[in-house]
Amino acid sequence: MTYRTRTLSALAALGLMGVAAFTFDSGAAAFAAEEAKIIPAPKLKAVETGKQSVAIFAGGCFWGVEGVFSHIKGVKSAVSGYHGDAKGTATYDKVSGGATRHAESVRVVYDPAQVSYGQLLQVYFSVVADPTLLNRQGPDTGRHYRTALIPVDKSQAQVARAYIVELEKSGAWNKRIVTAVEPYKGFYPAETYHQDFMFKNPDHPYIQRWDAVKVANLKRVFPALYSAKPVRG
Questions:
Q1: 165 is catalytic
Q2: Three-state secondary structure string covering the chain
Q3: pLDDT per residue as tens digits for the range 110-166
Q4: Which domains does the chain have, with CATH numbers?
Q5: Whole-model pTM?
Q6: Which of 61, 90, 157, 190 is labelled catalytic?
C-alpha cells in the first residue's frame, strides 16, 4: 500500500480531503513523473459509428488518467473507477489493499467525429502512462496500478493489440511494453471524492508532483486535441 493510499483512506474516513494533511513518503522522490513521448497514431483504425463511443484505460492512479482525458476535445465524460473483478470488491479500501483483481481505471465517453479511439490510444501511450512499468506508475506500486487497455468491442481489441506491436517495433522505449489488453469485465465508478479530483484539487501535492505535468504534456504534444476547459464527470 502506498503512502497516498494510507493517507487518503484516513482522510476519507474523516470526511477530509484537504491538502494540508497530505505529504509524500521519502521514497516518492526516487521516481520521476512520466516524460512525454512523440509516437505515431495507430495504423489500424477502429470501426466507430454513432455519436458516442466508450473506451476504458488503466494507467496507474486514476486521478491523472482522468485529468488528461478530461482535457481532450471530443471527450464527453471521464469517470474514475475500477475494472477487473466483481462489483462487490469495487471499493477503494479493498482495491488499494491489493486483495482484488481490479485496476484503477477511467471510462471515457467521446464523440468519434471529434476524436478517434486511435487518437485516445496515442495520447495514452504518449503522456498518460509509462507502458514499460509492471504494476507501478510514479510512486504507486501494486497490481491495481497496472497499465491496461480494456476494449469494449472486437474492433477496439484489434486496434489495441496491433498498436502495441507497432510500438514495440518503433523503439520508442528501450524496455519491453508490459501494458496488457484485458477483456471487459464491467466498470464500477469509484467513490464520489475521487471524481474530478484534479479539477477540484489543483493544488494538491500529489496532483502538482505527478499529474499536472501530464496535462501540460498533452497541451504541448497534442495542441489540436487539447481543451483548456475539462469536462466534468
A1: no
A2: CCHHHHHHHHHHHHCCCCCCCCCCCHHHHHCCCCCCCCCCCCCCCCCCCCCCEEEEEEECCHHHHHHHHCCECCEEEEEEEEECCCHHHCCHHHHHCCCCCCEEEEEEEECCCCCCHHHHHHHHHHHHCCCCCCCEECCEECHHHCEEEECCCHHHHHHHHHHHHHHHHHCCCCCCCCCEECCCCCEEECCHHHCCHHHHCCCCHHHHHHHHHHHHHHHHHCCCCECCCCCCC
A3: 999 999 999 999 999 999 999 999 999 999 999 999 999 999 999 999 999 999 999
A4: 50-221 (3.30.1060.10)
A5: 0.88
A6: 61
